[in-house]
Structure formats: structure tokens, C-alpha cells
Design goal:
The complex is a heterodimer of chains A (113) and B (110). By secondary structure, chain A is mainly β. Chain A is 0% helix and 50% strand. In chain A, strands 2, 4, 5, 6, 9, 10 and 11 form a 7-stranded mixed beta sheet that branches. Chain B has 110 residues and is mostly beta strands. In chain B, 35% of the residues are buried. Classes of the chains: A mainly beta (113), B mainly beta (110).
């Protein structure tokens, strides 16, 4: 079964440092997403990406965040200057837009210290 | 009113029991509805899509009531392996952005 692959599985970073979370969506999918889940809380939408541009972003996705699809297979989330409150599980997801639901990656646990 | 509202539980039920979860959503323009399952510290996994006509997949039955903006999930003959958090998810057309409920925790007891 096709998978969405995320790396690393766990990243620890110092406050103020930049981090890049990586995702390889399913190859024939067209819509890509980042979500986050703070421990004990619900899954929250960050950003959607289609046709090489952001199609929608949430209030959480401020100027510190950016996304990129640099090479047609990877989809990255960059946090420029991490804060303690950025500590969360970050999930990448993709879909072909057929209404059958997303496939999520297994997530990157980001810990900001 | 929360966009997607669920009873957080936990629902503690014995093996073999039937359990039902409900979910309400606030945006009447929502178009797609799903139940996802999430195990502790893992990614959400699609359990089933939800249609107005209702749909069934083995022991799982999902129902959508658009007029009441209400979604349900019924699990029959609960197994220990059904223990997880069940996430109600609502999506609008366009970007297919998902709005998640907080999830309902289920514990199936031996």
C-alpha cells in the first residue's frame, strides 16, 4: 500500500533554531498538507499546497513557517525560528482529490528546548 | 460553537459490546465527512468515509444527517484492538482542508 513518508521521526532543537521537516507524499497525489498536534490536543490544520503553491493556510501558519516542494517528490515544512510552543507532532498528508480521504505520514515529533 | 464537536470520553466498554459515537459540525457548507482512528502518538488512519445514505464496513457503521449536522459511528462486537481515539473529520470542497474534532477515546475491556 502506498505510504506518505516523513523524516525525521523525532527532532529536538533549541529555541530560535531553524528546522526543516521532510515529507515524501504518495507519487500520484496532487494535494499536500501539513497538520500539527500538540500533545493531548486535537489535530490542527496548518497549510494546504496544490499546483506548486499554497492554497490555504491557517492563523498558526505565520511568517515563521514556509513550505516548499523543491524537486517534485519532497514536500518540506520549515520553521525559521522555533519557539517552545512549536513543540508538537507534525503530520504530512496527501490526497489525489478524489474524496477518499487523506493518507497521513507517521509524523515528526518536534521538541523545542 | 466548536467547528466539530465530539464527546471526549473515555468510553469503557466490555469486549463484544456495541458502542456509538456522535459528532456535530457547525459549517452547513461542509461536504465530506470521515471517521479516522488514532492510536496513542500515531498518525490518524482513515476508518471510513461517511455518506448520507449510511455506510457499513464489517462491524463499523457510519451515518450522516445533514439536516441536523450530525455524524455517527457505531461499532458492533467490540474487540480489544478497537481501543483507540476516534476522530470525526469534516471537510469543505476546494482545498479539502480537514477540520478535526478532539476525538473520542474508546477502551475495550477484557
Amino acid at each position: 500500500e502506498p505510504e506518505v513518508t516523513q523524516t525525521p521521526s523525532h527532532q529536538v532543537t533549541q529555541m530560535g533554531q531553524e528546522v526543516i521537516l521532510r515529507c515524501v507524499p504518495i507519487s500520484n497525489h496532487l494535494y499536500f498538507y501539513w497538520y500539527r498536534q500538540i500533545l493531548g490536543q486535537k489535530v490542527e490544520f496548518l497549510v494546504s499546497f496544490y499546483n506548486n503553491e499554497i492554497s490555504e493556510k491557517s492563523e498558526i501558519f505565520d511568517d515563521q513557517f514556509s513550505v516548499e516542494r523543491p524537486d517534485g517528490s519532497n514536500f518540506t515544512l520549515k520553521i525559521r525560528s522555533t519557539k517552545l510552543e512549536d513543540s508538537a507532532m507534525y503530520f504530512c498528508a496527501s490526497t489525489d482529490g478524489g474524496g477518499y480521504g487523506y493518507t497521513f505520514g507517521s509524523g515528526t515529533r518536534l521538541t523545542v528546548v | 460553537r466548536k467547528e466539530v464537536e465530539q464527546d471526549p470520553g473515555p468510553f469503557n466498554v466490555p469486549e463484544g459490546a456495541t458502542v456509538a459515537f456522535n459528532c456535530t459540525y457547525s459549517n452547513s457548507a461542509s461536504q465530506s465527512f470521515f471517521w479516522y482512528r488514532q492510536d496513542c502518538r500515531k498518525e490518524p488512519k482513515l476508518l471510513m468515509s461517511v455518506y448520507s445514505s449510511g455506510n457499513e464496513d464489517g462491524r463499523f457503521t457510519a451515518q450522516l444527517n445533514r439536516a441536523s449536522q450530525y455524524i455517527s459511528l457505531l461499532i458492533r462486537d467490540s474487540k480489544l484492538s478497537d481501543s483507540a481515539t476516534y476522530l470525526c473529520v469534516v471537510s469543505s470542497s476546494g482545498t479539502y482542508k480537514y477540520i478535526f474534532g478532539t476525538g473520542t477515546r474508546l477502551k475495550v475491556l477484557a
